[in-house]
Amino acid sequence: MTKKKQEDQKEQEIEKLSEWQKRNKEYLKKKAQEEAEKVKELAEQKKQHLPNSEKKKVEKNDESAEEVTADTQENESEEAEKPTETETSEEEQDEPLDKAALRKKKKAERKQAKREAKETREQIAPRHVYRALPVLILSSILLILAVYFISPYSKLKNIEVTGNKQLSKTEVLDASSIQKEDYTLTTYLSQKAHARNIKLSSLWVKKAEISYQFPITFKVKVTEYTVVAYDYSGEQYFLVLSSGEEIATPVKKSQLPKSYITLDFSDKAMLKKFVQQLSGISNTIKSEIQTVQHTPSKATEDLLTITMTDGNKILVPLSEVAKKLPYYEKIKPQLTETSVVDMEAGIFSYRNS
């Protein structure tokens, strides 16, 4: 192996050495040089005290000593280049030290990041928060509403119907136009419209009200017209309501109550007007009325003949029923026999022949 190759090999080995090995090698080299210089100085001092013949011998010995010293230095450097067990253990110790230092560094960086984030939050002025607050609240409300309308809970409804006697619950609900797939919110907003639908759907309904009870309950309160009389027409009886309207469906005679008022009007407008006049009469008098017939005279076109349950008859114009009929309560105790109470022109009575 040539000298050049040896030098190249040494350079490669030096490059492979660790940092600690390099420092150790430099230290040993420097120490060897210092020792060589000390030895040289001592030799020079001795040489000065020796005669010339001996000085030459000493110089030759010094040259050989220098060669030995150079060889020794090379050997020491080679030994230094070889990693010892101690060096290996120190390198192994460096690795965990480096990891611990890296962990500490990362921990410090995290703390610094948290501190900076906290400082950034603290730097946000309250006015910016107040400005953003309405937007955040509105966005939250919209999000909640969106989720609510998507869910099936938005269409849950519990509908309660009260006050209905002639109409069934199904008929009331059908009349209201409230659908199963309608949203609870839209039903709440359309309460008046649904109540109006119920009222217009049937002659029986006098009034309809819908109230909402959180969270999903709707209470439908129905007020129905009462039956005040029965219109006898074509050998059939038809219900006459307190509104003056007549139900087109006939009633069987077996379904009639024990006591009732029978009306015999050919003109439905007159029938409705009589019912309206009757609303101002006391229940005591109304309970004694048996039949009401339209019996016009030459003087009075709208003259009515009212037959009472005690057999007495009252002649009274339709337009004056509410005004004159209440006097019957005062006249009745004075009648000693079945009589006719004529209220067409004035008020007087005579025996019913």
TrEMBL record:
Domain POTRA: 154-225
Compartment annotation: Cell membrane; Membrane
Transmembrane segments: 129-150
Keywords: Cell cycle, Cell division, Cell membrane, Membrane, Transmembrane, Transmembrane helix
Signal sequence, renumbered to the chain: none
Keyword match S-adenosyl-L-methionine: no
Topological type in the membrane: Single-pass type II membrane protein
Residue spans of biased composition, Acidic residues class: 64-79
One family name in Pfam for this protein: FtsQ_DivIB_C
Ranges where the record places region Disordered: 1-122
Domain of life according to the entry: Bacteria
Compositional bias per record (Basic and acidic residues), positions renumbered to this chain: 1-63, 110-122
A GO-annotated cellular component: cell division site
Role noted for this protein: Cell division protein that may be involved in stabilizing or promoting the assembly of the division complex.
Name the record gives this protein: Cell division protein DivIB
Native source species: Streptococcus anginosus
